[in-house]
TrEMBL record:
This is Hydrolase TatD. The keyword Cytoplasm does not apply. GO terms for cellular component: cytosol. It comes from Paenibacillus elgii. A divalent metal cation 1 binds at residues 6, 8, 92, 203. It comes from the Bacteria. Signal peptide: none annotated. InterPro entries: DNase_TatD-rel_CS, Metal_Hydrolase, TatD-like, TatD/YcfH-like.
Length: 255
């Protein structure tokens, strides 16, 4: 049993073979998938996917790269979806200073509004952080995100930053990049993250693990992330999968 805690199986990259991709995941022992809706287009299709498959769950949120497009009505809409039985978190939300497609002040406002919403409805948050480590941590502190906790998705920062996030009730999730031969820092951070706060993911169709680097990612490949994580943690693959699946269940409120 393995949980892929972050995927985008509703993405157009899967339009021609989505059913086969999902069946491959099941055949490879993937017992649960958290699929992420992050804007006006992807939220409805993510929820629809979760409604179609009993082992797929959805998040709802507004990605920082699209922050400039979010209206007050969109925020109300996200809130209205938080009561859906298959919606387990708000996300992915955060700050992205790499793509710079939305002004930083707009990203900041949208990020804060969604943390406040998460606290209001009592759901954890899924954090997207690209080249904005300091500001993300500061905002999480200022908005009391520790009250709901969440996950630092596809973590790429330092151990020092990871410690601050752990102190705020967050889990640290690793994806395909931790399997890359030159991924020194992610491997070092994963080694230090306590087992009871560790998660694994694919971010499919993006960031495929070795040996599929550069190709389309899919949920069945989360097993490769699990194998690397087990090796780094010096435990069996079975134990690593059992622990991270239990962690995901605890975070997202799944039995």
């Amino acid at each position: 049993m393995i949980t892929d805690t972050h995927a985008h199986l509703n993405a157009p990259q899967f339009d021609e073979d989505r059913q086969e991709v999902i069946e491959r995941a099941r055949a490879n022992g993937i017992s649960r998938i958290i699929n992420v809706g992050f804007n006006r287009e992807t939220i409805p299709s993510s929820i629809a996917l979760a409604e179609q498959y009993d082992f797929i769950y959805s998040t709802v949120g507004w990605n920082p790269t699209d922050a400039k497009d979010m209206t007050p009505e969109d925020l109300e809409w996200i809130e209205s979806l938080c009561g859906h039985e298959k919606v387990v978190a708000i996300g992915e939300i955060g700050l992205d200073y790499y793509w710079d497609t939305s002004p930083k002040d707009v990203q900041d406002r949208v990020f804060r509004q969604q943390i406040q919403l998460a606290r209001k409805v009592g759901l954890p948050i899924v954090i997207h952080n690209r080249d904005a480590h300091h500001d993300v941590v500061q905002t999480l502190r200022e908005e009391k995100a520790a009250e709901v906790g969440g996950v630092m998705h596809c973590y790429s920062g330092s151990w020092e930053t990871a410690k601050m996030c752990l102190d705020m009730n967050f889990y640290i999730s690793f994806g395909g990049p931790v399997t890359f031969k030159n991924a020194k820092q992610p491997k070092e951070v994963l080694e230090k993250v306590p087992l009871d706060r560790l998660l694994i993911e694919t971010d499919a169709p993006y960031l495929a693990p070795h040996p599929y680097r550069g190709k389309r990612n899919e949920s069945s490949y989360v097993r490769l992330v699990a194998e690397t994580a087990a090796e780094i943690k010096r435990i069996s693959l079975e134990e690593l999968c059992e622990i991270t699946t239990a962690n995901a269940g605890r975070l997202f409120g799944l039995s």
